[in-house]
Amino acid sequence: MYGLEKDKYASTLWEKIKSNPEILREAVKIKRNKWNNGDEVNGLAICNAMLIDYENVDACAYNELIKNIYSNTDIARTVIKGASNGGYSFLLMSLWNNNIKLTKKQKTFAVNEAMNKIGTIRYENNLNDYDLLDKYFKNIFTFLSNTQVHGCGDFDIRYWILKNPNWTLNEKQKLIMDFWASDDYYNETLEQWQWAIILMMNY
User: Fold this and answer.
1) What's the burial of 202, exposed, middle or buried (CB within 10 Å: 0-12/13-18/19+)?
2) How confident is the model at residue 11 (pLDDT cuts 50, 70, 90)?
3) Dist CA 152 CA 148 (whole Å)
4) CB neighbours of 16 closer than 8 A, spacing ≥ 6?
């Protein structure tokens, strides 16, 4: 994926891999990482590709991967491409599939991860316990931590949860209030979503 002629080679190799359910089912299994300080899947790049090409992979392996993502924070926060504090995590990528049926527990897991993002009600409430200088350092350390891993900017995990049909309209109306503590920040984000729609229509 990251060598010379990566697009052509990776595409050809993936076609071979995804047609072998045995490889996919082995790839989604969880193991301890080499530092023994967290969990990871056996096949990081394979699982990443499965989350993108979800319509064309073995259902048993894919469902096991989804189960692992929504039950293990280490797996949910895994990022193959991008910054470890803002890249596309496995959890965020799973929300690209509007056809998966999430349980109530899985939905709670996703929302809990989203509430870690800077700017949410929970994050802002936690800052109330700090003085001004401590808040400054808290923001810096949080920004650099893997709690911020699920995307960045206006299209982070909060956007993908609101876009996903697993949540009802009533649930989304409440989530909007919790996801953005600041009306100004939310209005700016909403404006960026609107511009994105305009750009897509004119593309």
Assistant:
1) exposed
2) confident
3) 8
4) none
Q: How would DSSP label each residue in 65-133?
A: HHHHHTT-HHHHT-BSSS-TTTS-BHHHHHTT-TT----HHHHHHHHHHHTTSTTSHHHHHHHTTS-HH
- b/e sequence 156-187, b meaning 16+ C-beta within 10 Å: bbbbbbbebebbeeeeeeebeeebbbeeeebe
Overall pTM surpassing 0.85 (yes/no)? yes
Q: Tokens 């994105």 — which residue?
A: 196
pLDDT tens digit string along 152-197?
889 999 999 999 999 999 999 999 999 999 999 999 999 999 999 8
